[in-house]
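Here is one chain, start to finish.
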Amino acid sequence: MRDPDGLYELSATADGIPRGLPLVAALTGFADAGSAVTQVSEYLLATLDHETVAEFDSDELLDYRARRPTIYFDQDHLSDYRPLALNLYLVQDDLKHPFLLLTGYEPDFQWRRFVAAILDLIDRFEVSTTTWVHAIPMPVPHTRSIGVTVSGNRSELIEAMSVWKPRTQVPANALHLLEYKLQERDHPNAGFVLLIPHYLADTEYPAAAVTALESISAATGLIFPTDRLREEGRDFLTKIDGQVENNHELAKLVGTLEERHDNYMQDNPLRSPLTDIDGELPTADEIAAELQNFLATRRTGDEDSAN
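Its structure:
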């Protein structure tokens, strides 16, 4: 069954979906620092029971030339085609509590129609709350807990969890538009922006996924299995810390970030944690340059292990 606007198709079992469930949204697109959103989406679908509720029409929403799907070449023939997908799932958390999960690519086209379709699904299933996550790179140290900026109308979450409350213009994504429309409806919603150390933005940073899941849990009460991610995160940070320990200049730069972060958190909640007293950004490019050797060594080590 297709929606009235023809943008998604419901599964045959959609009418049996419980009403009043929370909706969690995680779309990959403009920014996914530390691969936080990608990890969360893949981890939830790989570890939790789920079924498809609605499939969105990629021919309407996706720019195939900008984000080409993968096709496999097996010696002399094509063996597998894996198109990008954007779906709504019914998922059960670790305690078998159901929730709705919207995940996949962020639409390239027709944002207004897409948001209208999500609002239609929210009405159809009488969604109780909507929570979404994304992650952006920031000059913050990896030696401190990952901070979040919280938007939306869940004041209890904003007061308890939002470490940075800027007044600024930002490039919008599709879920920003959804949040804006949900606020007009007074629908309970919260968006979590993870502030990821920018020198780790291009890595698969397990701690980012853990923080994203913890944020979703705080907003919904859902419980997720995170033991594997936490173990991977400890191993990852041990390697990063080893690189810092063996490089005096890198250690000095990370120490500068730590000092600015700690001063902001303790003494001046109105000043951005990203700048010093004079408003200057730290030399984050130098940190990235110093860590390139570590990341290159890590990739080489993985390749050697594979061989």
